[in-house]
Amino acid sequence: MSTPLPFPEADAPDDAAREAGRKLFAGQTDFLKGVVAMSGLPPDDRLEVCFAGRSNVGKSSLINALTGRKGLARASNTPGRTQEINYFTTTDGPYLVDLPGYGYANAPLPVVEKWQKLLKSYLSGRATLRRAFVLIDARHGVKDVDEEIMTLLDRSAVTFQAVLTKTDKVKAKDRDRVLKQVREKLSKHPAAYPELVLTSSEKGDGIATLRAIIASLD
């Protein structure tokens, strides 16, 4: 009997779970507000999930693919330009929270420090946050800046799930190597949820799975 892999790929949802995910995101999803301080957070009257990832990982594309709205989340052409925590509402569902991209080198130090402080406050102080999705570029695997956010999530006791993006851009011969590296890195983080989600916003791969996961959280 073979030993199961640590951090296996999440199974495709069954019909009921797929339909629950479809229904959640079939409704209207709207931009609510951009937040630059904890005092600006909306009321914690529902669950929320957040999306974190370094600049250019494909976070905006993934949120747009999830919601079926191409222009909902906008990517900045300048890494690190977006310094707000962006809130989106789903119909009768959780808030979707888009955290600013991290790992940018061109932002002034005071800006970076202010953002890091806000991020730490948000992650440690938001009781309704059910899961963070940490986006990893499938072409590159886990980078040092990804490790930093994962460590922060560990310390904040926030469960996070790794979502690999741009899987359609990875050659088959490189796929196993990248997955091995990601699994090794995740194994060091106690807050890591033990399943990976592999996605391609362009092809639609993994979108139904991620929708079903979000719909199942309570």
From TrEMBL:
Keyword Magnesium set for record: yes
PROSITE patterns, sorted = G_ENGB
Gene Ontology BP, a term: division septum assembly
- Keyword Magnesium among UniProt keywords: yes
A Gene Ontology term for the protein's cellular component: cytosol
Write out the entry's keywords from A to Z. Cell cycle, Cell division, GTP-binding, Magnesium, Metal-binding, Nucleotide-binding, Septation
Q: Which InterPro entries match?
A: G_ENGB_dom, GTP-bd, GTP-bd_ribosome_bio_YsxC, P-loop_NTPase
Q: Tell me its cofactors.
A: Mg(2+)
Report the family membership.
Belongs to the TRAFAC class TrmE-Era-EngA-EngB-Septin-like GTPase superfamily. EngB GTPase family.
Against PANTHER family, the record matches this protein to: ENGB-TYPE G DOMAIN-CONTAINING PROTEIN, MSS1/TRME-RELATED GTP-BINDING PROTEIN
Q: What's its job?
A: Necessary for normal cell division and for the maintenance of normal septation.
Q: What is this protein called?
A: Probable GTP-binding protein EngB
Q: Which gene encodes it?
A: engB
